[in-house]
Amino acid sequence: MSEQKDVEHNCPECDGTGRDSGMKPMHLGEKVEFRPCTRCGGSGKIKEADS
User: Which among 5, 27, 29, 42 could bridge 18 via Cys, Cβ 3.0 to 4.6 Å?
Assistant: First the structure.
């Protein structure tokens, strides 16, 4: 009987940072607003079932 293990990988969407930068043009003195990545939910890791 084989066990299924979850394997964690860096999220390809945010490159493991857990943040979606929004990629909008910035001006000097403007605050950068980071939102949690929509794919990994802000954790920076995604779990995949290793079969």
Answer: 42
